[in-house]
Amino acid sequence: MARIEDLAERYGRHIATPWQRTVAGAQRVVMVVYDKELERTLRARLPAFEMATHETGHDWRQIDLSGAFAEWMAADDYRDEYFRSPEDLQLKLDAEFPEFVAERLQAELQSSDVTSNTVVAVLGVGSLFGFARISQVLKIVEADIRGRLVVFFPGQFERSNYRLLDARDGWNYLAVPITLHGEGGTT
User: Fold this and answer.
1) Measured CA angle at 158 (ends 147, 145), to 5 deg
2) What is the pTM of this model?
3) Rounded to 5 degrees, what are φ and ψ at 161?
4) Is the pLDDT of residue 24 over 50?
5) What are phi and psi for residue 81, nearest 5 degrees?
């Protein structure tokens, strides 16, 4: 079986276990960790994850953050000035962009048809690299997670640390890791 199919099978086994309703928001996050080179393959095989979710009686919603930076930048009145002088953008990025991404995610999590039985799947977190830290975004949205938040994470999970695109310093997070590499909650 191919690597993404193995990952979907592990995800399915995990998502089928009874969900504790009294856990904190950070413990409702599931990180599906895969090699960054498999991004296109994962996207092509995403229906396997959705099907595994439905087979366990849970609902599925997904949000793709791939275009978040472009949307944020396009809405800024001073975008042309930032393109002329990109070094001036860093302060604004640090102050506003993580909150923008979190608001997009919160809108999905707070949707009236998202319940405590819903998996909200997040794609495109690799596109945040260099603009925002996914750890910041998750911290902001933790309280809004009703069911489970599944983050498709192109990177590594080693010694309880997540590293986006294998490049950034890792961070320790309470999420349940699902990996193919022997470490994590369901490997």
Assistant:
1) 15
2) 0.88
3) -120, 140
4) yes
5) -65, -40
